[in-house]
Amino acid sequence: VVFAENKAVIESFKQELITEGATQEEADWIANKMVYLGSPKYDLNLNQTVPDEWIPRIKGKKVVLLCTSLQPFLNDPATEMLNVNTVISEFSKKDDYVVIWREHPLMKATILSMRPMYAEAYARFQRNFIEQDLGIMDRTHDYRIAFSVADVLYTDYSSLVTIWQQTGKEIHIL
């Protein structure tokens, strides 16, 4: 018996067997010996406890999760802030959407140590998001909470992309 994290892995393995010369019957026989068990890392994204203050804001709305990470900001802070602003502006105007902005946990410390000339602009930008109530600033310590309620993800390519892809939900790379 071979354990697989999802049905797509089993199907991919089966197709690879055929590519390598196995007959359809042989590939099916081997695939039938594989068991789909899921993946604890991905399965933990389900059924998270959502902060009480989020519930009335997300109820009945499409939730856009905006995850910002370090590298794009370090590479080009102005472009990254423009990208973030574009997503926030697009969805904060729509009554049937809500944006949850989750920055990398080390974002502020990284800006202060590596791009201090942008610290005030970034702080002002973030304050504006919060004070104008343009969405939810995710201050939880676990990305899985936002993942569990989000319908679509906007982010750069990071490790979160691989995890998000397992949900089968829409993703947009900034």
Total strands? 7
Order of helices and strands: EHHEHHEHHEHHEHEHE
End-to-end Cα distance, whole Å, is: 41 Å
Q: Tell me the Rg in angstroms.
A: 20 Å
* Largest sheet descriptor: 5 strands, parallel
Mean pLDDT: 91
What would the principal axes of the Cα set say about the shape?
elongated
Task: Give the number of helices.
Answer: 10
The structure class reads alpha/beta
Strand order in the largest sheet? 5-4-3-6-7
What share of the residues does DSSP label as strand, in percent?
Answer: 15-25%
Give a short summary of the structure.
By secondary structure, this protein is an alpha/beta fold.
Would you give an account of this structure?
- This protein is 49% helix and 17% strand.
- By secondary structure, it is an alpha/beta fold.
- The model has no long low-confidence stretch (mean pLDDT 91).
- The chain contains ten helices and seven strands.
- The strands form two sheets. It has a five-stranded parallel sheet with strand order 5-4-3-6-7, with helices on both faces. A two-stranded parallel sheet has the order 1-2.
- It has helices at 7-19, 24-31, 40-43, 55-58, 70-75, 77-92, 107-114, 119-131, 143-149, 159-165; strands spanning 2-4, 34-36, 62-68, 97-103, 136-137, 152-155, 170-173.
- The chain is elongated and about 65 Å long.
- α1 (7-19) packs antiparallel against α2.
Question: What is the fold's blueprint, element by element?
Answer:
Elements: E1 2-4, H1 7-19, H2 24-31, E2 34-36, H3 40-43, H4 55-58, E3 62-68, H5 70-75, H6 77-92, E4 97-103, H7 107-114, H8 119-131, E5 136-137, H9 143-149, E6 152-155, H10 159-165, E7 170-173
Parallel strand pairs: 1-2, 3-4, 3-6, 4-5, 6-7
